[in-house]
Amino acid sequence: MNTECIITIDGPSGVGKGTVAQYLCDQTGFHLLDSGAIYRSLAYGVLKNNLSAENLPGLVTLAENLPVRFEAGAVYYENEDITAQIRTETTAATASKIATIAEVRAALLKRQKDFAQPPGLIADGRDMGTVVFTHAPVKFFLTASAEERAKRRLNQLKNQGVGVNIRQITQDIKERDERDRNRKTSPLLPAPDALIIDTTHLSISQVCELAMKAIRQKGLIE
Description:
- The protein is of the alpha/beta class.
- The chain has one domain: P-loop containing nucleotide triphosphate hydrolases (Rossmann fold).
- The chain has 9 helices and 8 strands.
- A hairpin with a 2-residue loop joins strand 3 and strand 4.
């Protein structure tokens, strides 16, 4: 697919990537790649099959044959709707750990690239602009303080009726950031040509407006 039709959005969890990506899809009519959902689906399979993080052959085999599909905003694993299950803290933590394994990332790379189809793609993840779609003409990197992201996650979980501890959430976020930034393969860093947006003190509508302005300036949409 022509890279002129690809827009990447990278950054850690809790910065608004998913909301911005969906908004841009609605505005452009482009397809959506939620790469985080792919890694969390793999983590779900790892937990479901009691795979050890040290079982490299097992992890790679599962990644290469991941029985997951995405339909109408829902995620299915072997025909089981796991949309809610992959959003838990346990699954997210497992996904963060297995995402540090180079062989696992390599096994999932082609699947992610295959999402690029006309009329275009909005790719949401952590290495979309630095590894998966390096020649995308528009790249965003969203960031926010760990404390602000913890507050957002707290509100999310409260709305789901889940009891949580703000200190624990903040600590989990900081540890996950540390793993993501310092892994040897595809560390969480902005691409040199990415537009960095700090969402700490911005509303989601303000972030979306900034993103749309950048896309228009590149001439991808009118």
